[in-house]
Design the sequence.
């Protein structure tokens, strides 16, 4: 006996976690380097130290609440890195500006914390609530990604606590007064002056600015119509599955012989390390996303392990061509493992109704449409082919004369071919059935069936079965009948040849839905469309609650309506950055991209809250409104820009991860434009809503 490893999940998990830890450390290094470049050595090291403390504190709390380190939780930490420094940057920037203006360090720290503590708390809560829909989602996709919300919640709250406690302490200890800058305008630099002049121009041409943004919004909405849809991407696991189906009713020995030949061919391919073959059923469920097939004699599965998952895309066409050439009557299906819930064919149409014959007709029409499209492969249905059965015609009158009933004849036929259980043999802790049946030579020859002997209670002797059976009829029968919601349901299905399933689905959907359904029959869509729809509906179920809470938090912060209205009017404009990013990178707008957009809205609102609070503060201190708008915007320039740069650059490691890439692209491109929204559109909307006189903007 030789033992081999098919899948050792411990090694796989360790490799994945180590890779993500490396990505996290790289993102952490990128963020700290950016801080050092733009904030100076002292401020950069200070904020970097706060970031490290925040991450350490987050990991400790995660351990307390049994949140493990895995792909989702580590990815959430990388996503949160840019947001974690946001609060510390605001506090450090405020203290630094006051120290450079000649204020005592301790007084500066007290003043900044008192001024920014509650706005930062409100903005942080809003950013957390943007992810709350994930935590409230009750379906499989929500359960799979729930750690994302949990880690964001812990880390952002930790960042706020440290921003108002440890950060001012470090600032008092380590920030020094620079005699060269005391008494001088801290915003006298060229970058600040260019921004101030440009903002003044936008305020003067406020309606033109808003009109331009609305035009860009409509262009972005049109761009969204060009995006492909997706649910969860394929895994980077270095393994592929080959599901092999022979014609229904095929002997399991023939299936096994075919699989031996296929295994020999696959093992010769470059990059293939091992092949595990299962005949008659799938493997045990060794990972969450693997769904083993039920027991079928005509079915077999091969798990092919390769040295690099990037080889899989080149191996699949080679293996498929070999199968088509050498096993033309088979129905092979080659697929990668997927990340996240969902499984089986990507495109499924479920026809439900009472009559199996009508259901097969509907399935054949749907499969014909799939074949005509040209972009679909592995087209079949889950009822598979009908099988031949030999059905005895029971002679009621003759059987009654000899004292035989229909069940007695059925049991005799079963014993003669399949065998019947006559006892149980105990071996240790195992119970083994004892089956009684004739020798194989008698069982395999169907010609002997008429001479089969049956005990007659009336005659007290065995009689041949032909005396109680008028004949045998060969019929075609459905060997497999599936039910869905207690209704007979047949599911024609297929996969795309290349690319995302949504492209093929959108082409064939109207044609299949145009099939005329008899009364009592119905059509439902399954596959990736159903999985994605259910996940989005579950996510949408929690969104009204989370968004209502976000709105209430913003209203409570300002105790007014115009400021929250300005903030929420900016949220839809974030689409302007998202659509071009996904189009340029070729990424679909899937479930993870949707989560990215939700988080993006939280980041945008957080920045807008801090800026508008600063404008209101300076107006309350007696500044002329137009001056308050300009000065507040200039003072927020570095914190907002720094938060955006650290978040965008910190996302770089996620761009190389198949699971997070669409989410990373959404946030990176969306936040880049959202920074423009915060620094330009928010001040312009403030001037419009509060009717700041245009002449004062000159």
Sequence:
């Amino acid at each position: 006996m030789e033992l081999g490893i098919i899948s050792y999940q411990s090694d796989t998990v360790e490799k994945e976690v180590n890779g993500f830890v490396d990505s996290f450390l790289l993102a952490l290094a990128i963020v700290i380097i950016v801080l050092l470049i733009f904030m100076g050595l002292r401020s950069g090291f200070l904020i970097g130290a706060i970031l490290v403390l925040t991450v350490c504190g987050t990991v400790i709390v995660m351990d307390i609440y049994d949140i493990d380190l895995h792909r989702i939780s580590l990815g959430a930490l990388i996503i949160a890195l840019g947001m974690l420094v946001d609060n510390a940057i605001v506090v450090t920037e405020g203290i630094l500006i006051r120290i450079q203006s000649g204020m005592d360090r301790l007084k500066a720290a007290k003043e900044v914390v008192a001024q920014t503590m509650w706005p930062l708390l409100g903005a942080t809560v809003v950013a957390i609530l943007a992810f709350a829909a994930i935590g409230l989602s009750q379906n499989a996709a929500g359960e799979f990604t729930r750690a994302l919300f949990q880690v964001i919640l812990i880390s952002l709250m930790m960042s706020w606590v440290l921003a108002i406690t440890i950060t001012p302490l470090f600032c008092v200890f380590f920030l020094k007064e620079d005699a060269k800058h005391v008494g001088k305008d801290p915003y006298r630099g060229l970058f600040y002056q260019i921004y101030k002049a440009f903002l003044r121009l936008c305020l003067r041409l406020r309606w033109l600015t808003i009109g331009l943004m609305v035009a860009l919004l409509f262009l972005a909405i049109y761009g969204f119509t060009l995006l492909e849809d997706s649910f969860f991407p394929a895994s980077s696991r270095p393994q592929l599955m080959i599901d092999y189906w022979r014609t229904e009713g095929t002997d399991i020995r023939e299936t096994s012989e075919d699989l031996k030949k296929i295994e020999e061919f696959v093992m010769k391919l470059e990059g293939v390390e091992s092949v595990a073959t299962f005949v008659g059923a799938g493997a045990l469920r060794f990972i969450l996303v693997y769904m083993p097939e039920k027991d079928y004699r005509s079915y077999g599965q091969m798990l092919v392990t390769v040295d690099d998952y990037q080889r899989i895309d080149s191996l699949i066409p080679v293996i498929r061509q070999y199968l088509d050439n050498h096993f033309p009557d088979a129905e092979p299906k080659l697929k990668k493992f997927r990340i996240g819930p969902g499984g089986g064919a990507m495109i499924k149409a479920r026809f439900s109704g009472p009559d199996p014959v009508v259901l097969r007709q509907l399935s054949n029409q749907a499969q014909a449409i799939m074949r005509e499209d040209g972009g679909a492969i592995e087209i079949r249905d889950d009822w598979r082919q009908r099988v031949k059965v030999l059905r005895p015609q029971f002679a009621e009158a003759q059987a009654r004369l000899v004292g035989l009933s229909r069940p007695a004849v059925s049991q005799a036929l079963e014993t003669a071919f399949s065998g019947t259980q006559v006892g149980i043999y105990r071996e240790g802790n195992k119970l083994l059935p004892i089956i009684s049946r004739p020798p194989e030579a008698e069982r395999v020859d169907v010609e002997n069936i008429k001479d089969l002997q049956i005990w007659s209670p009336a005659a007290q002797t065995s009689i041949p079965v032909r005396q109680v059976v008028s004949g045998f009829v060969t019929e075609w029968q459905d060997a497999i009948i599936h039910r869905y919601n207690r209704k007979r349901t047949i599911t024609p299905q297929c996969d795309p040849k290349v690319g995302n399933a949504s492209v093929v689905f959108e082409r064939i959907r109207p044609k299949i839905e145009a099939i005329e359904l008899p009364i009592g029959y119905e059509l439902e869509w399954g596959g990736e469309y159903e999985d994605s729809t259910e996940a989005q509906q579950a996510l949408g179920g929690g969104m009204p609650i989370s968004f209502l809470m976000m709105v209430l938090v913003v209203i409570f912060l300002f105790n007014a309506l115009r400021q929250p209205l300005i903030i929420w009017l900016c949220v839809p404009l974030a689409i302007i950055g998202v659509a071009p990013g996904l189009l340029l990178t070729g990424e679909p707008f899937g479930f993870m991209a949707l989560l990215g957009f939700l988080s993006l809205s939280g980041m945008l609102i957080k920045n807008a809250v801090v800026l508008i609070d600063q404008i209101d503060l300076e107006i309350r201190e007696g500044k002329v409104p137009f001056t308050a708008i300009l000065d507040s915007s200039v003072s927020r320039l570095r914190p907002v820009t720094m938060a955006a740069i650290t978040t965008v650059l910190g996302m770089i490691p996620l761009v190389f991860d198949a699971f997070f890439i669409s989410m990373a692209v959404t946030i990176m491109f969306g936040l880049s434009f959202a920074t423009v929204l915060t620094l330009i559109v928010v001040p312009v909307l403030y001037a419009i809503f509060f009717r700041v006189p245009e002449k004062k903007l000159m």
